[in-house]
Amino acid sequence: MVVVIGGGASGLGVAWDLTLRGIPVTVVEAEEIGAGTSGRFHGLLHSGGRYVISDPVSARQCHEENRILRRIVPTAIEDTGGYFVAVGDDTAYEEAWRKAMDQAGIPAVFVNREVLAARLPGLNPEQRGGYWVPDAILEGFRLLYLLRDNVMSHGGTILTHSRVVAVHEHNGCVSGVTLRTPEGLREIACSAVVNAAGPWAGEVARLFEDPLPMHLASGVMLLFAHRRVPVVVNRLAYPGDGDILVPHGETVILGTTDVHQPYPEPPVPTRDDVAALIARGQLLFPEMTEWRALRAFAGVRPLYASQHGASSRSVSRDFAVVDHGARVGFAGAFSLVGGKWTTFRLMAERTGDAVAQFLGIQAACRTAETPLLPSQSTRRGSPSPIVCECEGVTADDLVAWISSSPEEWRARTWWAMGPCQGTMCVHRGLALTAPSDVSEWRRQLKWVREERERGFWPAAYGDNAREFQLQTAVRYQTLGEGEAHAAL
Amino acid sequence: MQPFNRIIVVGRGPAGLYASALALSYGMGVTLIADGVGTLPLWGGHWDFVTTDDQGSFVSDPWAWWENVPPVPGAEPVTRAEWRAWWGTLVRLWDAIGIPVDDTPRRNRWLMTPLGTLRPVFLTPKWHWIQEDPGAVTVVGFRDFLDFPVAVAAHTYAQETGASVHTVLLDRPPQWSSGWQALHWAWYFDSESGRNWLLAQLEATRFESRRPVVFPQILGVDRTETLLGAMENVLEVPVAEVPLTPPAIGGFRIQRRWERWLRRRGLRFIHGHVTTATPTSVQLHDGRVLEADVVVLATGGVLGGGIRIQADGSAHDPVTGVSMGRLSAPHDLGVLGYPAGETGMAVVGRQLGGRDADRQGVGGALILWSVHRVWRSVGIQTNQEGVEVRGRIVGRVP
Q: Does the distance separating the beta carbons of B246 and A424 come in below 8 Å?
């Protein structure tokens, strides 16, 4: 048995890798699937073009993994392709970028400015043309749940809202862990532990008494309500703020900022973050201030660096599998740190290699050839009332996940994620749980409202400010959600 | 003596309709311009005086609360007699329009929300279920109508009040389909088949005797009173409704009746977008310029679209260019607006700043105060005798 700490892309990826090697796994996630960095990214499946100058090793890995993921999880990828758009007069970077793409073997096809202008309405007229690259869109939550469902259908265990609080050793080898679960403390015997906790990996490594140097940097992203671009759009420049747009369904995400921070929790985006992001985004689309914003969100890049203080743009997107047995004599303890969403499978493969070798198990990695199969639909045949009009979510869609948390309902169905940000549907959805405990019900309602407001408020300008005010009006006037209570 | 006959009102929310109705009753010619459906269907139809004090506690006696408190910071306080006269005007107006309403209340009463919580309200249409002292009730829902979660409402109401709650879950009608929202239900109950279906359900269901029966506010659009009467005949107890999230059928009913009434009295309605407004003219998006004696801005603040927020947090009125400073917290969105002092524009309702209509529950009071203030500022007011223009009685209200 191997215990994997972290229910994001790297943790679930490792669990899937080990499962296919025939090694039993238990994943321990402190919150929900994808609650950390994996659920908080711009959704780009990298071609490698973005990092080909700053980080060529990672760029090559991205290119290779991009092609593998298209094979094994086609249902979680929208293959739009992408453009790198040259704006301004930095022709030296363009020249270097073309050479580097050539060397890395990543396709990049020149597109002249007239074609680009026709393909991307509203694009800055000062563009000089650009390049088509095999960027694509990765539906992060869809892939995370595919991993989760496949791990479980192969006999793996996934525990959410649980933490590893101690790792036990016997003769210098991992022998088990103590978990704090919602039901209380629990011991699991295991022969290896993999720390795949993303930004929390530094803290988790303390359980092995072997602290890891992490370089944590937050990135704020802004979600717009309309799919303003048909494909991924990058600005052809050294990676910087507000230089990438990724369409998702009917929306588009603008990414990102890059601010070093000492702690792993994602920050709450501010209005200043949003204004700064838009100002940079206007280099690509000058009318961006008029686009209908929906919400802002932030993720934390779990970069691994032995040298602190460097700008995280210059810290490698490469990853490392740390063997704490070799470092401090805690055999069977591994940490997977750094890396990117796009390369999660490769990261998992290398980790799986190390763990299998440690366990003395001769089993090669099979993830590159094994498709992740979608789980069976649980819909019943009869018509079901619509709960969330924005995203077309029915009562049956939500009831299928009724035993999970509101957070998982959102990630599974996109309930409360559309333009009204839950104004009309949060109470409808929560009511489906047929609650008997009113205070618990109100606590959940408050929790969802607060969670939504954190991203809603920083993007409350233009029509989204009206939407925000509508939510306030409905909450206070119609639903009586205000705090005020009077003696009856 | 008719000093003004060309009035332009911009906006068709409650402030715009109230300003228009008074102006028509004064004998003025009124043009109402609006570019959308207005905010009435966002709201069930309750008219707040004040619900919540500055400390966040519910207010039971709004008359006393408003003593010496200015409607917005910087304005003069309003006397009890003035408030009473204005509420009386509203009650008579709604009565004339055909929106059923009781006399001016003496204090706030309790309104049940769709979640079963209680909030104070002042004046409401008679459809609303209003109580002086919350007591036993039967709460009725319909299968697959999700806007009124009966189990939650019943649990919460029982917990908050200690009163006995009986719940009844009726089936969905044979015509139901998954896309049905509140308005589908309401139109269905306006129809003969819908009414018959509902009455048959009531006949076939056992209800606890001697307690009111409360339904979600979907009991018809134009024929609500007839339906409620028929339901009360079957059940032999009072039947009333809980107003729901938008589109709120109560506000929708009011808007239909009120706008029909205004048009019959000669209101000119222009469906168009105002790009520029001055105190005596507006320009429309098609280039037309309309001159007026008075232009009234009833454009609804941030919620109505009358105040625009930029990405940098600055706020302004896009049709006048008047700047309103910058936002720093979510609460500011409800307080932003024109100051009480003279800005040259006649501004009513939420477009005025200074108080949060949603959090404090003062929206109705601010509409009454601001509309009467506008007409008084040009020399017109109403009193016991009728409409007085510059000292001379010219008509009755409404």
A: yes
Q: Which of B114, B308, B312 sits opposite A427 (nearest CB)?
A: B114
Residues of chain A with pLDDT > 70, as a percent, come to 94
Determine the structural domain holding residue A451 and report its residue range.
Answer: 386-486
Q: Do A428 and B146 touch (CB under 8 A)?
A: yes
- Residue B152 touches partner A, C-beta closer than 8 Å: yes
Q: Which residues of B touch A385 (CB under 8 A)?
A: 144-146, 178, 180
Q: Has residue A379 been placed in a domain?
A: no
Q: Which of B113, B179, B330 is nearest residue A457 as measured by Cβ atoms? A: B330
The minimum CA-CA distance between B246 and chain A, rounded to whole Å, is 8
Is A74 inside a domain boundary?
Answer: no
The DSSP code for B52 is B
What stretches of A160-239 adopt beta strand conformation (E)? 163-170, 173-181, 184-189, 192-195, 214-224, 232-235
Rounded Cα distance, B125 and B189, in Å: 19
Residue A196 lies in a domain: no
Please indicate, yes or no, if residue A406 is contained in any of the structural domains: yes
Q: Is B38 on the interface with A (CB under 8 A)?
A: no
Tally of domains within chain A: 1
Compute the distance between CA of residue A230 and CA of residue A247 in angstroms, rounded to an integer: 7
Q: What is the pLDDT of residues A51-76, one digit of tens each?
A: 999 889 899 999 999 999 999 999 99
User: Distance (Å) from the C-alpha of residue B68 to the closest C-alpha of chain A?
Assistant: 23
